[in-house]
Design brief:
The structure is a single chain. The chain has 224 residues and is an alpha/beta fold. The chain has a single domain, classed as Rossmann fold. The protein contains seven helices and nine strands. Strands 3-2-1-4-5-6-9 form a seven-stranded parallel sheet, sandwiched between helices. The chain has a two-stranded parallel sheet with strand order 7-8. Helix 3 links the parallel strand 5 and strand 6. The protein is globular. It starts with a strand and ends in a 5-residue tail after the last helix. The model has no long low-confidence stretch (mean pLDDT 91). It is found in: Membrane. This is NAD-dependent epimerase/dehydratase family protein.
């Protein structure tokens, strides 16, 4: 039985991960850290509200005793400068990484990145460089284990909606095609991301950067 921290659980991916953790018999307790409430009551769920994620050290005691973090917090880079996007994506993640490592180096840290992330940190696309820098920082920190989830096209399930209005607009249009889309190994679902996250801490794998086909393969792997 594992105890996990989930960030960004009011967003589409984070909500999917949270729902799978709540349903999983392998997860004993979940701590969600958000700016706003998920408005879910469950015996396994504990919630910490934090307006400024850079003040994560103020809830240091609440973070003790966990085995893994599923860091799903993120924003679109649209309309943001590199400085602004770096602060939200890299600086806030590093603050969390540093604290969790100090608490427990024998920890698994899973980061929701994205397809197109630039591990070299030298490409032309700003968001891809920043995501790559963030991934590299996590991988070199020294945790017992770490994974970067790089989903591309995602089908939301279990009533989950995107908080990004134009994403949600397209999801509404595409909804009739969801059953067909889910047949593709190159399209994943919010459910599969959540299941794959849980499996990664129960049955560690060698592959550390997971794309949609890898997420789907891990989520549907037999043996659990």
């Amino acid at each position: 039985m594992k105890r996990v921290i989930v960030t960004g659980s009011t967003g589409m991916v984070g909500k999917g991960v949270l729902l799978e953790c709540l349903e999983s018999p392998y997860i004993a307790q979940i701590l969600v850290v958000n700016r706003s409430s998920v408005n879910i009551k469950h015996p396994k769920l504990k919630e910490v509200l934090l307006n400024d994620f850079m003040q994560i050290d103020t809830v240091f005691e609440e973070l003790k005793g966990y085995d893994a973090c599923f860091h799903c917090m993120g924003v679109s880079a649209m309309g943001m400068s590199e400085v602004q996007y770096t602060h939200v994506t890299y600086d806030m993640t590093k603050k969390l990484v540093d604290i969790l490592f100090d608490l427990n180096p024998e920890f698994t840290f899973n980061y929701v990145s994205g397809t197109g992330t630039d591990s070299t940190e030298k490409g032309r696309t700003m968001w891809a460089r920043v995501k790559g820098k963030t991934e590299n920082m996590i991988f070199t920190k020294g945790f017992l284990d770490a994974y970067a989830f790089r989903p591309g096209a995602i089908v939301p399930e279990k009533g989950i909606k995107s908080r990004t209005s134009w994403y949600q607009f397209f999801y509404i249009i595409l909804r009739p095609f969801f059953p067909l889309m889910k047949r593709s190994k190159n399209i994943t679902t919010t459910t599969n991301i959540g299941i794959a996250m849980i499996r990664s801490i129960l049955e560690p794998i060698e592959l550390k950067i997971l794309f949609n086909k890898d997420i789907n393969a891990l989520a549907t792997k037999e043996g659990m």
